[in-house]
Input
Amino acid sequence: MTPTVVLPVIIGGLYAAGVYLLLDRSLTRVLLGFLLLGNATNLLLLSSGGAAGSAPILGYGDPEEMSDPLPQALILTAIVITFGIAAFVLALIYRSWRLVRQEVVGVDEEDRRVARRSGMDADEIDPDDLAPEDRPAMHADTLAADDDAERGLARHYSGIASDDVDLPTPRSNP
Amino acid sequence: MISVLTPLPVLLPLLGAAAALLVGGRHPGIQRTLSILVLSAVLAVSVALLLLADADGAHAVSVGGWTVPLGIVLVVDRLSALMLVVAATVALGVLVFAVGQGAADGDEETPISIFHPTFLVLIAGVANAFLAGDLFNLYVGFEILLTASYVLLTLGGSAPRIRAGITYIIVSLLSSLIFLAAIGLVYASTGTVNMAQLAVRLAELPDGTQLLLQSMLLIAFSIKAAVFPLSAWLPDSYPTAPAPVTAVFAGLLTKVGVYAIIRTQTLLFPGGALDQVLMWAALATMVIGILGAVAQTDIRRILSFTLVSHIGYMVFGIALASTAGLAGAIFYVVHHIAIQTTLFLVAGLVERQGGSTSVDRLGGLAKASPLLAVLYFVPAMNLAGIPPFSGFIGKLGLLEAGVADGGSLPIVLVGGGALTSLLTLLAISRVWNRAFWRPPAQSPADDTFRAAAEAAGPQLAPGPMPGPADEQQPASEKQPAGAGTATGNGSGSRAEARRAAWERHTAVATATAPVSDGLDAGDGSRERPLRPLPQVMVASTAAMVVLTVGLTALAGPLYAVAERGAEDLMDRTPYISSVFGGEDVP
Output
């Protein structure tokens, strides 16, 4: 039996698509990317056992013609782990949606605050602060909707302070 | 004897977790007692394993009685036994701290019935990773501890924790997938995942294949260990979790990654092909990590960055690939697990006492609570490596090993290590100066926050506020409920969430006021007595501080064990022959 080229091609394609989705800011896409990467890795494990053969262990065929059972056992374990974690991530996404009506990866406020102190680095390359045409593809809509929501809130609560008001500037070091 | 004991550090916490889940929230007392008993038993077993392994050398146990290359093998040698002992010790200390916190806060608001089983599962995963004798079992150990850590990190499900948790989970998943793919490639090229067998078979592969496998494993483990440039996730995700969770994460989880790096570099790939790369990574981790710490103003974030930075010392020791370097790295791992856990517990106490972990808002803690000041000062000096403490001994050992190596790059790293040590001292003494030492009236945020609080909600400002730290937890619990039930309208419920968050914010701000009012003679109306810190929490933190000081007293024997462990690692034969019983490796 000779190895097939189909598996490597599928594995490569799944990895490429998975990485692409994983780089998105939308959490559902990230989850889908993770699932694709998980399946690609499972296929990689499967192909590591060599060419396919008859059912192992049961003794239906000559030991030389049997498939290697170990990668299959590893894959079963990996599938269970991937499944459980995917369910957990789904629950997290749902929770995130309930809390902030967003399912994108949030910004780290503390990081921004530290970055603002120097006023010269990270903030300037943050996609939120770029002009819409400079933003990475696929993000303009999400962020625009977010900005609209922010402006609506600002109008609504213009009378009172809001929680993302700038914190007082820290004292400079003595 | 040792064959019976070896699986117990994995089995006991798993069974204990099942039992703790059974008694559930209905009998919190039984659950707490059970968890503490289980972890105490794990600690006792680990100490016994260390004594046996140190006396007799490495020992392997075939789980289920399968012959060696086929079944799962658990291997206990000096390194893994030592790691087990430290892990069990800090886990026990943190658990007692968490029990004290739960008792002080009232358990109704937090899903404490989940906390104990998950914590035990986490320890089972850590123990499994330390004992694993094959790569796939190591992967399973990582997954057990990571899955438990996902739950612990997002405990309560408040918005900041979900945000931090998602970053953490995605990065961890990615590293696990890289690890799994590496296992697939290792199996494809050698036909085994047993580490002792791999130690022999990997050496027969072509150099390029070896290099690919080694770099994939190192990348996967470096993400888990937070080695720069794969460390950005850590300071982003750790600080939001509850204090005990952050403490055990900071202490243990990254060190499991370091342990895996040690195994990869010594047992699987002893050729030292990537030592230069690791040296540069170690230098960057040390210096960039500590520069991050200097820039921060939040105590937990400062500690998270020092955690990243000091991983660099351990990687340095590993990259030296000498017995002295490895011994220094092992000792430093032991020291750092204890010290980092302790400091995060102290940060939890600071938050409870001062109502914040930001050094801009804290002040006068040394006067308000001298005991807390001592509890911070001793481990902080230890972390910076001030002479009598174990941090100094560990750093000295590593730097000496670097000088003894004689190369020019190790000398650069020795300089970087010394610089990092000084900058660590700067970072932690800034916390000391501002949070503990400066007169509280200087706190600049005080008036601003009080004014903001009165403007935002008059009902919040007067009257006794609930204590700072325990009201923060319930408030974050209420917020999602408010957000969820408010309206179906999107912006409406988001507004509710924002209002709740603002109320929590002001509550924290006003709660910091009493600390400042101690010296604010002109304004007597807001004076109120400080809440005493819960005794169990203080006692467990104090016990951990005593333990870190005890590491100094026990440094002699401990360093001797580390050196013997390092000799075993460099030699490799004790590990391999323990698995194959002295026969030829198939």
